[in-house]
Amino acid sequence: MTDFHRLSIREMAEGLASSQFSSRELTQHYLNRIARIDPQVKSYVTVTPEQALSEADAADAARKAGQATQLTGIPLAHKDIFCTQGIRTSAGSKMLDNFISPYDATVVSKAKQAGLVTLGKVNMDEFAMGSTSESSYYGATRNPWNLEHVPGGSSGGSAAVVAADLAPFATGTDTGGSIRQPASFCGLTGLKPTYGRVSRFGIVAFASSLDQAGPMARSAEDCAFLMNTMAGHDAKDSTSMDKAVDDYVADLDATSIKGLRIGIPKQYFNVAGLDAQVKARVEESLKQLEQLGATLVEIDLNMVESYVPTYYLIAPAEASSNLSRYDGVRYGYRCENPTNLLDLYNRSRSEGFGAEVQRRILIGTYALSAGYYDAYYVKAQKVRRLIQQDFLNAFAQVDVIAAPSAPTTAYKIGASLDPVEMYLGDIYTIAVNLAGLPAINAPVGFDQNKLPVGLQLIGNYWSESQLLSIVHQYQQHTDWHTQRAAIAEENA
Ligand code: GLN
Predict the structure, then answer these.
(1) pTM of the model as a whole
(2) Which domains does the chain have, with CATH numbers?
């Protein structure tokens, strides 16, 4: 068999369970593809072939011994923000270029317990700050649909590996859209869970009250398999919720589109900068959902103009505090020949952090400083509460809310957007993080340049199962999620 990469996760699980192929064969197939195709896509920061093959052999042995889970032996890639014991965790930064974690993130250890095989660590914007993956110290990752375009960010590597079939699925994190926007740019399904559903333990922190990890894959069904291994309470993360986890795979048929009330926030479709093609594809997908039995309900989300200013105070404020730990002393990059302690701090941070990260630290430190704290940080927290209330009011009327995931399709590499232009591109995703809600991206077509467009569905708290199920139902009637970029069609 030469085209393992065309199989769904369910088909891989069935093939392994019935001994049609081994984990070693499957893993070797992906390693071959990575060796041949990744030099064009540049999605992996670190590939771990030896470890992957030894994990694959262990998976095959476990299966023979009758100790396999459904996913045992299936490969995956981790965003390079998840700590992996013994393998470098760079967070896309020169600061952590030499950092090898002494422990695994909970998401990583849960994946290992399920028997998943790690192919390697994939590229991302530095410390997950960005929307293109270009701020990575390791250079830009390419969009498999068009190598001159970005895959989105910050989980751009996670999106690119799946879209190029260099991994069957991948983990990502989403602080302000970093799962949904790259999924949208690369034609994938990506779920940002409710804050507290997935443990943040061992994830390099960006903005702790917003960060949440989730799955990225071709289909809702594939995401559901990975979500089953990721979700759950973790005593090591005090913000993770001690609440029973759904069986996301079993629930894929649990929600019917028939009778579903989908809220259409009218303010969202009047945003300046919403690309006409994106708008058209999203509206077509909503028509399809209507034909499948959903009711579209026009709703108001009045706070849309506050989203970008609020997020771009709170996220940098938390980042400036989280990133104060990188001082050149404990771990990470240290400058050469410091003359004194202040020089050591100063130069290690100036040389170790890239421009976007430095910008955020400066904005955040300013917003938190005495004299400005009330005017900026405290005010942003109050507005955050109003944004949440706005969503809760909407959920009194509708089951889910529909929006584009991003106002445009993938930018050209090097488009050198100014920072504010780039921040405005986050308009549809960041409010979801401010409110702590779950949301999913589903591919719904292409623009005139054959770049993917995504629909975002935002759910009420703990509705991951419902979101996956709705997208799964939609994907039973459409084939956007099965379309592949030309580079993914190539055999290794
Ligand atoms: N693009 C947003 C930012 O730059 C979101 C990033 C993320 O979700 N990690 O902050």
Answers:
(1) 0.98
(2) 4-258+463-490 (3.90.1300.10)
